[in-house]
């Protein structure tokens, strides 16, 4: 049988490659973005309780209503922004499904979608399988600042959507209020939609503020927010997330959602809803991860890697041009095989695999793991 792939350029993701290599060589795995410490006992018990209390059948299509109320309450509390729990919030199978569903609900053949590179890897295949065209804007290390006149020059009548991600995976940078205002300004008066991937919304450091798209009235009317309880509650394996958008957008989203997913794991939704009643469960995250970032950075301060402290997410990028001129994929593989520490080379997220000699390390790890990882990094 002859198969004509709809995604001929897609192979196995770098996360799978590096995690497998890490396992094969028994390396410390700071590559993939997941914690190696347990999730909260309280949260686990609440999910178990939900199962024992009968939350075992299909949840409503848009999500358990208590969870949607908790999400709506969180947006009021943090951003004084209203999303109607019945019409404007949908619980999804992780942010990835929300992203795919948004793109397939709106992108038609030849529509253009702007993305900023380095970009999280699920955006481009979702655009292209729906016939859309990716318009990349490459940002540069070490600051990954957006040049807004370049963005303006890439907009056209074909532009249907812009995907943004702050705090940003993989660079650990965040967008300022001015960036968001510039985005609003350059799309004002258009029907260009914004997909704002805010999975690291609660992981912002040094007292900085997360500028959610919902804070900007004109943008909010044209935007989806995607979010992940996997990131927020240290439970990436549960694959529960959500998205918010004004009802004229959300009603189109649900037309697709109800036929490809319908609804997601009910007891986890109920457990998360109960857990979120205490705001500290998400308000405590910046301090929790900042302590880990600082521990990691202090421990590697004598190494030959160069860095700017991560501003958000649980990733720290390290630049290694003082160590070797190897390309980043080869260097990351050598570090895994020879030094037994796994990371992610940034070139895989860049346009044409541009290599800035930068690796990404995940610090959502136990202190013990970070200490061992730093010992290795200091010897390289
Ligand atoms: C920027 C970004 N968006 C989306 C996701 C996917 O989130 P989820 O695991 O909830 O699907 C991730 C996970 O690493 C991510 O880093």
Sheet of most strands: 7 strands, mixed
Shape: globular
Strand order of the largest sheet: 2-8-7-6-5-3-4
Please count the helical segments: 15
Structure notes:
This protein is an alpha/beta fold and 380 residues long. It is 40% helix and 14% strand. The chain is built from 15 helices and twelve strands. The strands form three sheets. A seven-stranded mixed beta sheet has the order 2-8-7-6-5-3-4, with helices on both faces. A three-stranded antiparallel beta sheet has the order 9-12-11. α5 links the parallel β3 and β4. The chain is globular, with a radius of gyration of 21 Å. The mean pLDDT is 97. Pyridoxal-5'-phosphate binds next to α4.
Fold blueprint:
Layout: H1 14-24, E1 28-29, H2 41-52, H3 65-79, E2 89-92, H4 94-106, E3 112-117, H5 123-129, E4 133-138, H6 148-154, E5 159-165, H7 177-187, E6 193-197, H8 217-220, E7 223-228, H9 229-232, E8 241-244, H10 247-260, H11 266-275, H12 280-283, H13 285-299, E9 315-319, H14 328-339, E10 341-342, E11 344-345, E12 358-362, H15 367-379
Parallel strand pairs: 1-10, 3-4, 3-5, 5-6, 6-7
Antiparallel strand pairs: 2-8, 7-8, 9-12, 11-12
Helix pairs in contact: 2-11, 3-11, 4-10, 13-15
The chain binds pyridoxal-5'-phosphate.
Pyridoxal-5'-phosphate binds at residues 33, 94-96, 120, 165, 169, 197, 199, 228, 230, 236, 239, 241.
């Amino acid at each position: 049988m002859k198969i004509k792939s709809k995604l001929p350029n897609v192979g196995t993701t770098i996360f799978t490659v590096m995690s497998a290599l890490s396992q094969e060589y028994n390396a410390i795995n700071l590559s993939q973005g997941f914690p190696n410490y347990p999730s909260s006992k309280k949260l686990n018990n609440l999910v178990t309780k939900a199962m024992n209390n009968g939350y075992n059948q299909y949840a409503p299509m848009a999500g358990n209503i208590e969870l949607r109320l908790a999400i709506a309450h969180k947006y009021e509390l943090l951003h004084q922004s209203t999303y109607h729990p019945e019409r404007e919030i949908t619980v999804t199978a992780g942010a990835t499904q929300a992203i795919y569903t948004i793109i397939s609900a709106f992108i038609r053949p030849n529509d253009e979608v702007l993305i900023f590179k380095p970009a999280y890897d699920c955006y481009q295949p979702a655009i292209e399988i729906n016939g859309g065209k990716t318009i990349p804007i490459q940002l540069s290390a070490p600051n990954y600042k957006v040049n807004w006149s370049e963005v303006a020059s890439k907009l056209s009548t074909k532009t249907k959507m812009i995907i943004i991600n702050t705090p940003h995976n993989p660079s650990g940078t965040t967008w300022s209020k001015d960036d968001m205002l510039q985005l609003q300004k350059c799309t004002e008066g258009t029907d260009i939609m914004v997909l704002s991937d805010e999975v690291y919304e609660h992981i912002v450091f040094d007292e900085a503020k997360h500028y959610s798209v919902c804070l900007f009235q004109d943008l909010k009317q044209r935007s989806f927010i995607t979010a992940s309880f996997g990131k927020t509650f240290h439970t990436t394996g549960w694959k529960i997330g959500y998205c918010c958008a004004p009802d004229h957008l959300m009603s189109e989203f649900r037309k697709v959602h109800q036929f490809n997913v319908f609804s997601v794991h009910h007891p986890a939704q109920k457990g998360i809803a109960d857990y979120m009643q205490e705001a500290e469960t998400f308000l405590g995250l910046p301090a929790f991860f900042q302590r880990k970032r600082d521990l990691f950075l202090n421990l590697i301060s004598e190494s030959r890697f160069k860095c700017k402290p991560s501003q958000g997410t649980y990733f720290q990028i390290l630049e290694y041009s003082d160590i070797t001129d190897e390309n980043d994929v080869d260097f990351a593989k050598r570090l895994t095989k020879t030094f037994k520490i796994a990371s992610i080379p940034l070139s895989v997220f860049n346009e044409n695999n541009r290599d800035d000699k930068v690796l990404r390390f995940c610090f959502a790890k136990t202190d013990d793991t970070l200490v061992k990882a730093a010992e290795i990094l200091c010897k390289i």
